[in-house]
Prior knowledge:
161 residues; mainly alpha; Collagenase (Catalytic Domain); 3-stranded mixed β-sheet; 3 strands; globular
Amino acid sequence: MNKSFLILFVAILALSCSDDEQIIKTFSNADERLWPYFQRFEEVAAERGVDVDINSSGLIASIERLDQPNIAGKCQHPTPEENILIIDLPFFANTEDERLIEFVIFHELGHCYLGRDHREDAYQNGVCISIMRSGVGECIDNYNQNTRKVYLDELFDPDSF
């Protein structure tokens, strides 16, 4: 009986300790669907020596329909103390490319949390230097798995603020 109990206990313990499970931090003033992106933003900032605490910033974030064409997200400052981040619902719901969603959310956090302005610079080949490009300039986005580190290094570079 003791041997059977021990085997059952070990089996239950092994099944409950999955490496696939990740604890998602909660963000009190943000739509739950944004939490994994906000957590990732804080983590990649920390990897670069930048302390980011979105909860303490008072940032309010939602996913709702934006009635402006070709706008996937925006950061609003109704007062100097308020930061409101809005991600367009149709964009969020219909975009299958996880990196594109991350790109837009990190761009808007660049405005709302880091206080970054748009940066329209491009490399000689026409590719945007920064995730903070406005989208109305002539540079070409190239945010992907291979270039992500370079773009995030630039986003959190204190000299870029």
